[in-house]
Design brief:
Largest sheet: 8 strands, parallel
Number of helices: 9
CATH architecture: Alpha-Beta Barrel
Helix content: 25-40%
CATH superfamily: Glycosidases
Order of helices and strands: EHEHHHEHEHEEEHEEEHEHEEE
CATH class: Alpha Beta
């Protein structure tokens, strides 16, 4: 507990009422090597980052899960690549918007669950290089983010809806092995050809997420396997080997907990997952700037500034980070309404950022009063008007 003689600075923060729930189930162990603390330190001090969900799913504009939600046949969905030529894509503009918003790192969906890669993979024909754009967007993105002085992050999903072996690795084992080969090859590609990476944000991997043996046929019919029930089949994702190889290629990289490999930080997803105070485990809340999907949706309602500030302050006061998602348009631009809200976030942080950046949560636990953060002997109290 900090001494009562220390300076306490109160910041009046308008907060909307959000009922926090516990974070979703986690399965990856945390890393415990000697360099753990040093590797994650910059990220914990950064506190605020930009998430970008962008790909061919931006074209129909019905969210990043459109293929699965609408059960669009693989061959039909693949035709979207022929329309993917984002003539107004400007990675430097993305980085400038993030920097003006007060964000300190960025994470781009290099490949989502639909299998479309924004980078070059000679082993796949479903990439931006082979699309109408004939361009490696990850290369431009990494260069721009690094130039802006921000942390470079990439999102990658080992899951690929084009491979039934993901869901039934026993009966479709050959197909599952092909998917695993793609996973390992593409992680090697990302780790080897784009310079220094700071974050690899996994999604859709591991034995306890989504499908991967998650559908079982029992005497009472088809059942969804409980997410906390470990996969017990013979197939192995080989996450530990793949992530170990990535760490060899990128010694300073940090990864989240959505594989079976040891992670540097935990992920909480969605406004309602803000959860409780935790200053023992590095963690991050990822959520959207709009109401709705993570990928682009025309006229999506942008959340009020007060709500977003509440989430950012709430995360920092619980000793976590916030990764705020935008869904760029098919042409590559970040929607003006979203960009405007991000500028407002930056204006708020220009006045109050010292209470967020480089701080730790506490010393007082979150409560009806709001939350507190501290840096050395200085304590910041964020009052809540609505809790």
């Amino acid at each position: 507990m900090l001494s009562g003689r220390n300076c306490v600075r109160s910041l009046l923060v308008l907060m909307v009422c959000i009922y926090a729930t516990a974070a979703g189930a986690q399965w990856a162990p945390l890393v415990s090597d000697p360099g753990t603390s040093q590797r994650i330190e910059w990220w914990r001090e950064a506190r605020f980052g930009m998430f970008l969900h962008w790909g061919v799913y931006s074209i129909p504009g019905r969210g990043e899960w459109v293929q699965w939600a609408e059960q669009i046949p693989i061959d039909e969905y693949a035709k979207l690549a022929d329309q993917f030529h984002p003539e107004k894509f400007d990675a430097n503009a993305w980085a400038e918007i993030a920097k003006n918003a007060g964000m300190k790192y960025m994470v781009l969906t290099a490949r989502h669950h639909d299998g479309f890669a924004l980078f070059d993979d000679p082993g796949s024909n479903f990439t931006a290089i082979n699309a109408a754009a004939h361009h490696d967007f990850v290369a431009d993105y990494v260069k721009a983010v690094r130039k802006a002085g921000l942390g470079v992050g990439l999102y990658y999903s080992p899951l690929d809806w084009r491979y039934p072996g993901f869901f039934f690795p026993g009966i479709y084992q050959k197909n599952a092995i092909e998917l695993r080969d793609q996973y390992q090859r593409q992680i090697d590609e990302l780790g080897s050809h784009y310079g220094k990476l700071d974050i690899l944000w996994f999604d859709g991997g591991g034995n306890e997420w989504l499908g991967f043996g998650g559908v079982e046929f029992t005497g009472s019919g088809w059942q969804a396997r409980s997410k906390d029930k470990p996969y017990a089949g013979s197939f192995d994702w080989q996450d530990r080997d793949t992530v170990a190889h990535l760490r060899q290629l990128q010694p300073g990289i940090i990864v989240n907990d959505r594989t079976n490999a040891a992670a540097d930080f935990r992920s909480r997803e969605g406004d309602g997952a803000l959860g409780g105070f935790d200053n023992q485990t590095p963690w991050e809340l990822c959520t959207t700037i709009t109401e709705g999907a993570w990928g682009f949706q025309p006229n999506a309602k942008v959340k009020p500034l007060a709500q977003l500030v509440h989430l950012l302050v709430g995360a920092a006061g619980r000793d976590g980070n916030m990764l705020l998602n935008v869904g760029p348009r098919p042409d590559g631009r970040i929607d003006p309404a979203q960009a405007d809200r991000l500028r407002e976030m930056g204006q708020w942080l220009s006045q109050n950022g010292e209470s967020i950046y480089g701080t730790r949560g506490g010393p007082w636990l979150p409560g009806k009063y709001g939350v507190s953060t501290h840096h050395q002997n200085l304590v910041y109290v964020h009052h809540s008007l609505f809790v």
